[in-house]
Amino acid sequence: MPATPLPTATILGYPRIGRRRELKRAIESFWKGNTSETELQRTASELRAATRAHLVELGLPAAGGAVPESFSFYDQVLDATIALGAIPHRFADATGGSDLATTFALARGDKDHQPLEMTKWFDTNYHYSVPEIDERTPLAANPAALVAQLAEAAAQGIESRPVLVGPVTYLLLAKASDDAAAGFRPIDRLDEVVAVYAELLAALAAGGAGWVQLDEPALVSDSLAVPRAEILTLVERAYATLGAATERPSILLTAPYGDSSAALTRLGALPVEAVQADLVRGTLPEADLSSGALATAFAGTQLVAGVVDGRNIWRTDLRAALATAVRVQDAGIATVIGTSNSLQHVPHDVADETKLDARLRSWLAFADQKVAQVAILARGLAAGTAAVESELAEVDAILADRQAAPGVRDAAVRDRAGAVTAADRNRAAEGDRRDAQRALDIPELATTTIGSFPQTTEIRKARAAFGRGEIDQEAYDGFLRDEIARVIRLQEEIGLDVLVHGEAERNDMVQYFAELLDGFAVTEHGWVQSYGTRATRPSILWGDVSRPAPMTVAWSGYAQSLTERPVKGMLTGPVTILAWSFVRDDQPLSDTAEQVALALRDEIDDLVDAGIKIVQVDEPALRELLPLDADRQAAYLDWSVGSFRLATSGAASDVQIHTHLCYSEFGEIIDAVDGLDADVTSIEAARSRMDVVDPLGDHGYSRGIGPGVYDIHSPRVPSVAEQTELIQIAAARIPGEQLWVNPDCGLKTRGYEETVASLTNLVQAARAVRGA
Ligand code: MET
Ligand SMILES: [Zn+2]
């Protein structure tokens, strides 16, 4: 039993990067050698202290473990790797010195070591460093950082709660290292890993921790290697052991990012002191709630009701959130107000957005506002709804204002979306399109790129100068036109078949469109960590979406005017625009996607009128938004594919529609990819050495396909021989007239030298295979 119960207000985690991305700057300056490790540690420690004090100021109790210790230099999964001492053998000679040095060595690699792979964390746009585990990976508890942070907090008069990715999730997110025997699965080492967690917990208890938080989002996912029912059994096994440990803090077990309702009663029965449920994405187990089974399971266990949404930036409907928490409490369960997941996915503070429209701003809640909301709800839960009636009424009024505000609902947009018919989602038959597109005169094994060319310092400088008003529109446009002309000439010289304009005008493939569409707003400081020191600034999609004017036609049309070869128009698809923005929560995502699709449909029309014959609509986030919950996947794939088809089906048969998806694990969505009905699809494949061509071959995929032959994630230049071999692997399974030759993804993060060398080799490789 907990010595002290968890206070009734908590959050699962807070942004780590700093209000002005101080941590990013400090780390990058350390990487450059401008500051010492001691200085970096001092900055980090100051940032942590400021965060703890700020959370208390915002209403989290200083005592009792309400304040999470969720700092990370780089990534929380990597932190768990360090805490478990699970350093892959291949890094044995690369670690060194301190935990921090090891962290950066694993995250970034060096000339002799590929870094740990990075992949998306559940259905978010945050990337974690994938642990590599085999039978012999060392495991040894390393609680130093966790204990030190606890002591730091104590010195500040705050009793904080260390946060760690839990053992089951950690192992399910790991991959078997290259040294592992065939059939080895990291999860096979669960018992050993749990023993190390027990040691970590003992060290935390000795260090004075009253509570520890162990995150097990694996509990809500159907997308992991182990079926969900089995994950629950593994969690039960792990926490039976951890719960039985005598030297440990009280355990808060969390199940963020999705629906744990089917597991919640069993989780409540575990020998832990608190369990969190995401009640935004998820629901309560109604039958067990009304029968009393949930209360029985939770006897002696607190339930952290995750009623404040940690994934979006809208003010919580406090009345509804409180009602949910009250239902749990009235069932006889000790209830704590919490967030649905860590606030690491939202920016710091709405108050920083002084340039945002005041009315829009009043509807928003970033991390700080969400903490304050948690505190209000906790007061309401303790003292009754009446005690917080004025706060609830204030939110009621704000939500009503939002619903009634101009632009939130645009009759013309809604009428048009309402009139969409099935015919609007269908193009002519595939064969007819193939015939009509022969006029494009595209060779077998046609070579092309994915869209962006290197974003050079000069491009960034020009954009910044234009942003500051130092150069005018005319000068900036002239700069971009010169850049486009250069990129077109370069592609002709290299000998590519289908050209691109290079995307020099785009700061970001989503934000560019968000700035030109109605219904979006852009923030000034709304940074969210994407991975390591990288952050993105998602736009806010707040209203009905429409296109006041063409967005890309001038650039693409200009590029096409410079060459005889076809230039691909380049658009970002509806799902990706939604996935990488903060989207409205007052209507189904599918409705929002339809509006974006209609705007893109008009853009394609205008591109074609301007002489563009090939249009690529990128959907790299199609896989990312796939719900973790298997029950919700079919409906998602249906609307997401439908929105792509709505965007692209206005194109006549002689217009070739391309799409691009940059990941290779697409076996599970191959039917959906087929359903997009794009004439040509490019996908990532180089790193997996064309693994995707087998599923495609088995599937009998009949349209154009461009499996990447050039890994653009590193500056390495792939040789002609290497790219030839990859093309040959693909050509063995896919007929030449269907096969395209292209890199894995866009080139914007690459330098020119390596890009030119790699593309030159790519063209030669395609010619070699064609000639063979
Ligand atoms: C993340 S997918 C990127 C596609 C985009 N057209 C580019 O080349 O950059
Ligand atoms: Zn890509």
UniProtKB/TrEMBL annotation:
The coenzyme or cofactor needed here is: Zn(2+)
Q: Which Gene3D superfamilies match?
A: 3.20.20.210
What UniProt keywords are attached to this protein's entry? Amino-acid biosynthesis, Metal-binding, Methionine biosynthesis, Methyltransferase, Repeat, Transferase, Zinc
Q: Which residues bind Zn(2+) 2?
A: C662
Residues involved in L-methionine binding: I450, G451, S452, E503, D618
**Residue sites binding Zn(2+) 1 per the record:** H660, E684, C745
> Under which EC number(s) is this enzyme classified?
2.1.1.14
Q: How is the cofactor bound?
A: Binds 2 Zn(2+) ions per subunit.
Q: Does the keyword Repeat apply?
A: yes
Q: Which residues form the Cobalamin-independent methionine synthase MetE N-terminal domain?
A: 9-329
Cite the InterPro entries for this sequence: Cbl-indep_Met_Synth_N, Cobalamin-indep_Met_synthase, Met_Synth_C/arc, UROD/MetE-like_sf
Q: Which family does it belong to?
A: Belongs to the vitamin-B12 independent methionine synthase family.
Function, please? Answer: Catalyzes the transfer of a methyl group from 5-methyltetrahydrofolate to homocysteine resulting in methionine formation.
The name under which this protein is listed is: 5-methyltetrahydropteroyltriglutamate--homocysteine S-methyltransferase
Q: Cite the source lineage.
A: Bacteria, Bacillati, Actinomycetota, Actinomycetes, Micrococcales
